[in-house]
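Q: What residues go here?
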């Protein structure tokens, strides 16, 4: 079975879910066009439940769930959450029940339904159903309400006698960040810049810790308009620093770029759509509308304006099932 592997003294336990290391390869046509040496890290191809960055986090998060002998795993996210799909698959592997509170958008769009909002069926929702994930849908609102409803669900399951483990939004906890601190070991230190989509923050957090003091600068392209983004990433980092037994980093040490969120979290953007097409038509690689398309849009523009240069790694964090939940016009 999936034995928990303990790497060394003091390291957190992990259960293998992904096929690691993920591939990494150059993007020659985009490199020519942008005048940089552009590479891509294929976490979309990690071999776990259609791929994506939550797989790495779940290797550590599920080891913790197993250690706590939970029977039901509870989490939350957007209706088209990649995190819930991968969590559902991880729970399936260990014979655990998975329940999640979801909402279409973490805000009430003042002018009605945004143009590029994904459909509430198709994509990840189809995969959740196949996996047997129980989705509890609430009306669109905000992250705080989503989290309080998730607490309520967890307590009601506990009251009914189940042993429940709660997993943070997007798998972003100290263990989630730890997974990306380790992931940097697959890449090495010869990149000038590393660009990733960033939302619940543990991907950017772990990578930034890993490259602290090296020449590689980690840029997170925000996919959520939260103005206090860097503070949240720094807060996660304090948990990671405790795990690593190192000093924590301040909010200003996390390079979060806010220019490519578009209308809001969870909906596509014009620049993101253009970047999805550019990546597909130049390199035959698919991105997603909610995260990686926006991150690539940021990368392309930063290369054009000369803010990033040299050898650049684009971390493909996955999300491609959302392409199958697009609003058809
Ligand atoms: C969750 C997710 C992200 C954001 O990663 P965080 O660690 O939550 O910041 C980026 N891309 C995809 C495809 C995701 O599903």
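A:
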């Amino acid at each position: 079975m999936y034995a928990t592997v303990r790497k060394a003294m003091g390291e957190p336990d992990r259960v293998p879910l992904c096929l690691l290391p993920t591939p990494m390869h150059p993007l020659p046509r985009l490199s020519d066009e942008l005048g940089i040496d552009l590479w891509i890290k294929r976490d979309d191809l990690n071999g776990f439940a259609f791929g994506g960055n939550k797989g790495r986090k779940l290797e550590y998060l599920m080891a913790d769930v197993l250690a706590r002998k939970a029977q039901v795993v509870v989490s939350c996210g957007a209706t088209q959450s990649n995190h819930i799909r991968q969590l559902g698959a991880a729970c399936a592997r260990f014979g655990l029940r998975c329940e999640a509170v979801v909402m279409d958008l973490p805000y009430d769009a003042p002018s009605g339904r945004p143009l590029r909002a994904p459909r509430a069926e198709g994509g990840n929702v189809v995969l959740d159903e196949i996996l047997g994930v129980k989705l509890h849908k609430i009306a669109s609102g905000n992250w705080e309400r989503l989290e309080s409803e998730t607490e309520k669900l967890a307590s009601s399951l506990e009251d009914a006698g189940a042993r429940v483990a709660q997993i943070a939004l997007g798998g972003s906890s100290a263990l989630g960040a730890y997974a990306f601190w380790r992931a940097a070991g697959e890449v090495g230190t010869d990149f000038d810049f590393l660009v990733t989509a960033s939302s619940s923050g543990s991907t950017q957090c772990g990578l930034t810790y890993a490259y602290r003091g090296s020449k590689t600068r980690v840029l997170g392209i925000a996919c959520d308009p939260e103005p206090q983004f860097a503070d949240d990433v720094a807060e996660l980092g304090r948990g990671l620093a405790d795990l690593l037994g190192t000093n924590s980093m301040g909010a200003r040490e996390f390079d979060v770029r806010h220019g490519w969120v578009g209308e809001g979290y969870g909906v596509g953007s014009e620049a993101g759509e253009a970047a999805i097409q550019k990546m597909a038509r130049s390199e035959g690689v698919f991105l997603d509308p909610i995260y990686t398309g926006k991150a690539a849009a940021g990368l392309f523009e930063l290369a054009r304006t000369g803010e990033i240069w040299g050898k650049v790694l684009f971390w493909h964090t996955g999300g491609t099932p959302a392409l199958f939940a697009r609003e058809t016009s």
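A: Context that may help when evaluating the design: The beta strands are 24-26, 37-42, 72-78, 97-103, 134-137, 164-166, 193-198, 217-222, 255-257, 311-316. The chain has ten helices and ten strands.
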